[in-house]
């Protein structure tokens, strides 16, 4: 489904006037109607100006920031939650997929090994300790002189008369602040910046939104004997057997392939729920989905505890700060990755990474879930290239994307959305943005050769 904001919405969300430091004002009590509030015009302080402004500190955002800094740019990350890592940490994903790639994808597990905080599952995937990942990502930002501000949400985009993104406006405990940069990178996952900038975007498969479900990750505790029985990293019993076991406790999980990753000791990460048909940009719907999902995880753990034996000490230790989103906005770029690219194994001169993951579409409804929890829906994937052009917004200048909000269709997105690919995309966005700042130009005007050369340098194997 393609969307575009109305002219009035674009004007409301975009700021083209000069922003000067001044005291913030309260909202006017006068309103156009009982259901509307008119906010008076106000000046907003510019908190910082930087070469590259990264909006979202998840896997793609971290990679963007580190690569830009290592290319010589000044960098700032704005993050809505209280840690870096996004779905890895505040989302407690605990499992990285399609990560057999050079550069930061190789550096992260190597450094996690030094922290005794990783378990490998073949060359492409690994499980990690969430708290160790938080510390590592903050260390990397400190090492590369990257500025970070947490608990900060983007609420508007500043554009000039030439339709170039110049910065963003945020809300936080510090009030409204403006942030400017040569290049802004949307790594919010849900394409929040691109939408606020007035870019066209797609979401879901069709206009009536069959979209992929959300899942709330959790950490549980039980005896090692119990957890190792269903550990997917060690070839434990199947997901179907785990589901059948949960059903003996009187609960049929909303996700037909509940998964457990044993993390050592008496701790495991679990993905056992689906929330269907939830739009990630509807805060009310996401709230309700989170509440339902948390209750389901709690009930499952209580049910397992009630089985006694090895599960007698089972309890839900914690749930993720944010529910895991598979399907968000896909911002229109200068190339649109399609299902044909996936089927044909497309190659591009400006390829910045290769997706080797299958087309992974989770059931859109609970009824479909009973038949097949996930499938490729008939699309057989060949490893395909993602071109740099898919990371550059087409409707505005000065904006790049990295992660699952890049330009592509529903089926291509179902492959490239995993976080190993998000990291590789972020590296390319970071290098391109840094070189654009150095040359004083737009991302699309940076020649491919220096981008390719710098990416190869950053991705050299470490002895």
UniProtKB/TrEMBL annotation:
<dbReference type="GO" id="GO:0051539">
    <property type="term" value="F:4 iron, 4 sulfur cluster binding"/>
</dbReference>
<keyword id="KW-0004">4Fe-4S</keyword>
<keyword id="KW-0408">Iron</keyword>
<keyword id="KW-0479">Metal-binding</keyword>
<dbReference type="Pfam" id="PF12831">
    <property type="entry name" value="FAD_oxidored"/>
</dbReference>
<dbReference type="GO" id="GO:0016491">
    <property type="term" value="F:oxidoreductase activity"/>
</dbReference>
<keyword id="KW-0732">Signal</keyword>
<keyword id="KW-0560">Oxidoreductase</keyword>
<dbReference type="InterPro" id="IPR039650">
    <property type="entry name" value="HdrA-like"/>
</dbReference>
<protein>
    <recommendedName>
        <fullName>Ribulose-1,5-biphosphate synthetase</fullName>
    </recommendedName>
</protein>
<keyword id="KW-0411">Iron-sulfur</keyword>
<dbReference type="GO" id="GO:0046872">
    <property type="term" value="F:metal ion binding"/>
</dbReference>
<dbReference type="InterPro" id="IPR036188">
    <property type="entry name" value="FAD/NAD-bd_sf"/>
</dbReference>
<feature type="signal peptide">
    <location>
        <begin position="1"/>
        <end position="26"/>
    </location>
</feature>
